[in-house]
Design a protein that fits this description.
Length: 398
């Protein structure tokens, strides 16, 4: 009997580690067998800062997801996050010695395109082909087996700083997890929640986490842009803590319960002061001014990223937000007013099994990582050349 294509996906976020064990169905559905999230300290802006504490959180989340699923998986597809991630374009040509396109040729041309101009201190996280020409003819999707003289490929290369990736690899190893595939967190999140139709008509995706915001843009079914801003929901919490003179746990509670963008409410909120037991009354307006200032700054950063995309017209499918930070009250309507595009919250799609547990915007990344990992599951029968190329990259690492 064929092995079941089981996948372990891990997302080491700034505030929580999520792990998911899923089964890849040939029809594309991801059946969730186990899912867990463990709060983490020791991460900052998507990067590992305290190795042991992060490793403990990874171990806990992975163990719980495995025991829920009744599995003992240790090889994982893992999300990579942080503003060190950059997207560059690459291109390469390859003459075909045998006169026929072989899968090795596809892998070879992709490797050439990816490694063209990479700085020595950076590592390839992922390569995505977005254009292929066979003897100058574009639009061929699966050329393996075709008679041809030359292949030409355009790729997007997502790369990251080697030391950052080495630290991530180290904490995973300490936690007993072997990373076999990296997936950039912003793209994973987009894959977790966006439909193919949205990607075709054009969509902006924002994954608003605790320490980062991932920005991706899709058009004509393909990713056109990826970037990471080192600001997320934690910045609002720390602004409230400093600005209102309250400890961060209280600031977090105030944010979750009272903070809203653009509500113009009145009244006061009661909180305990940092020193002593005295109670202070904080005008809601003061709290909202602090939140709005940070949201305004954050929006300007997002706009800087979006301005790098050439827009003929706005994204037809509007903006889709995920991540815990996207739940800030009023954020969606604030952006709708500012940009004039529809904004909605994204929840993971295409799930079966324990899907209710994972159907929240905060699980979008780990679901997307698993969805990408399913392509790497060795025994998926309907193998396209894209999958075979992913396998090629996996083989490079192993
Ligand atoms: N209802 C809510 N309103 C406002 N903020 C919220 C809400 N729920 C969660 N958050 C915020 O979401 C953030 C955590 O989001 P998430 O779990 O997506 O982050 P992460 O994946 O750990 O971090 P990152 O992706 O930046 O590495 C926290 O700052 C938290 O305060
Ligand atoms: Mg995240």
């Amino acid at each position: 009997m064929a092995k079941r294509p089981l996948i372990l996906a891990v997302d080491v976020g700034t505030t929580k580690v999520s792990a998911l064990v899923g089964e890849a169905r040939p029809d594309g559905e991801l059946v969730v067998l186990g899912v867990a999230a463990t709060p983490v300290v020791g991460m900052r802006r998507g990067l590992v800062f305290e190795v042991e504490r992060v490793a403990l959180a990874i171990r806990d989340a992975v163990n719980r997801a495995n025991s829920m699923a009744g599995t003992e998986l240790s090889h994982a597809a893992v999300a990579v996050n942080g503003d060190h991630l950059t997207l560059t374009a690459g291109q390469a040509r390859l003459g075909l010695k045998t006169g026929t396109v072989r899968k090795e040729d596809m892998a070879q041309v992709m490797k050439r395109a990816a490694h063209g101009r990479l700085d020595p201190e950076r590592e390839v996280v992922e390569v995505l082909s977005h254009g292929l020409a066979v003897d100058g003819f574009r639009g061929v999707s699966d050329p393996v087996g075709m008679i041809a003289r030359e292949l030409e490929m355009d790729v997007w290369v997502v790369s990251g700083v080697s030391t950052v990736l080495r630290n991530l690899r180290r904490v995973l190893t300490m936690a007993g997890v072997t990373p076999v595939m990296w997936v950039p967190a912003p793209r994973a999140s987009a894959d977790g929640v966006l439909s193919e139709d949205e990607k075709k008509v054009g969509v902006v995706h924002l994954d608003v986490g605790g320490g980062t915001t991932g920005v991706t843009v899709y058009r004509a079914g393909q990713m056109q842009y990826l970037g990471v801003i080192p600001i997320g929901g934690e910045s609002i919490t720390s602004d409230l803590s400093v600005g209102l003179g309250v400890v961060s746990t209280q600031a977090e509670r105030l944010k979750l319960e009272y903070a809203a963008v653009g509500s113009e409410r009145e009244g006061t909120v009661e909180v305990r002061a940092v020193s002593g037991q005295s109670v202070k009354l904080i005008p809601v307006k003061e709290l909202e001014d602090i939140v709005s200032a940070r949201v305004d700054e954050w929006t300007q950063f997002v706009e800087q990223h979006l301005s790098r995309v050439e827009w003929a017209k706005g994204p037809g499918a509007g903006v889709v937000m995920t991540g815990g930070g996207s739940l800030l009250k009023g954020l969606g309507s604030y952006l709708e007013q500012r940009w004039g595009w529809p904004v909605r919250l994204g929840v993971p799609i295409g799930l079966g099994g324990l899907s209710d547990l994972s159907r929240s915007p905060g699980y979008a990344v780990v679901v997307g990582v698993a969805r990408n990992g399913r392509q790497a599951a060795l025994d998926v029968p309907t193998e396209s050349w894209v999958r075979r190329l992913i396998q090629f990259w996996l083989n490079l690492w192993n």
